[in-house]
Structure formats: C-alpha cells, structure tokens
Amino acid sequence: MEYTLKQIGVIHSPFRDKAQTPIQPNRSQARGQVEVFPEYAPGLQDLEGFSHIYLLYAFHLSEGCALRVQPFLDDEEHGLFATRHPCRPNPIGLSVVRLLARRDNVLDIEGVDVLDGTPLLDIKPYVPDFDVRTDVKTGWYAQRSKE
Ligand SMILES: C[S@@+](CC[C@H](N)C(=O)[O-])C[C@H]1O[C@@H](n2cnc3c(N)ncnc32)[C@H](O)[C@@H]1O
Predict the structure, then answer these.
(1) Which pLDDT tens digits describe the chain residue by residue (147 residues)?
(2) Would you say the CB of residue 15 lies under 6 angstroms from ligand 1?
(3) Burial 9-43 (b: 16+ CB within 10 A, else e)
(4) Ligand 1 atom with least separation from CA of 72
C-alpha cells in the first residue's frame, strides 16, 4: 500500500550542509523555527504549555536507501531499523526539541538537528508519562554511549 502525507509546515534551521548538522537534538544547542502553514495553525492551540515537542518530518535530501547502514555513531554496519539513519524506505525523521515560545503559527525551538527547509509532517507533545521508559536496552549504542 502507499500513503500520501501532507506537508504541514517548514523547519527553519541554521544548517545548510548535512555534514555540519548535529546528529541528534541532545547534541545540539542550535535554535530554529517551525513555521506551520496558516491552515494548520488552529491545531497549535495549547501547545505552548509543553516544554518539549516531537517533530516528525521528511528527510527530503536523503539519497537512496540501504537496509544495512553504518550509523553516524559507529564504525560498523547495522540493520537500518536499528539505527536513526536518514536514508530509509520512508524517509521520516523524529526529533524531540525544546519549545521556547509560540508566536501564532511559528514555534521557536532549541535542539535542532535538521537541515534548513526540512518539510514538517507532524507535531506531538512530549509527555514523560507516555514516553519515558526506564528499564531499557540500547543495543549496539550501549557501548558507544559510554565513549
Ligand atoms: C542521524 S539523523 C537523526 C534525525 C532524527 N533525530 C531522528 O532520529 O530521526 C540527523 C542527520 O540527518 C541529516 N539530515 C538532517 N536533515 C535532513 C534532511 N532534511 N534531509 C536529509 N538529511 C538530513 C543530517 O546529516 C543530520 O546530521
């Protein structure tokens, strides 16, 4: 089956070059703006009460798709779905960023790890009660996170 997604906005960031773009929000202090297209702006009501939000977006400049990849944080290959690599069958990215402020249809955010002009697909509030797990295993990354 195929699905069609609607672009609901654009993520503006300081980054024009993939190689210079942080690899995850927890490694980024960069600020940016999420511009939500005006027709979707009513959906932003009450979002300002949340300190962090999920951004889902299209890796619009990813090239190709391999099912085994070398992630940014390792020098060995792993199955694509065991990584956050941007080259995917469905090139969808996911970032938890800090929401600094909402100005009508524009969100000021911190912790940006995407290229300027990245198409926005969805926004969801980050809710620790829903999303935080404490009894976790982190696979190949466990060793890398200690380095
Ligand atoms: C490793 S991915 C992680 C992104 C997200 N936090 C995730 O886990 O889905 C981040 C990298 O993707 C690349 N990237 C960022 N925005 C992109 C875009 N719009 N198109 C293609 N590649 C992008 C950059 O090289 C950046 O360092």
Answers:
(1) 999 999 999 999 999 999 999 999 999 999 999 999 999 999 999 999 999 999 999 999 999 899 999 999 999 999 999 999 999 999 999 999 999 999 999 999 999 999 999 999 999 999 999 999 999 999 999 988 766
(2) no
(3) bbbbbebeeeeebbeebeebebbbbbbbeeebbee
(4) 1
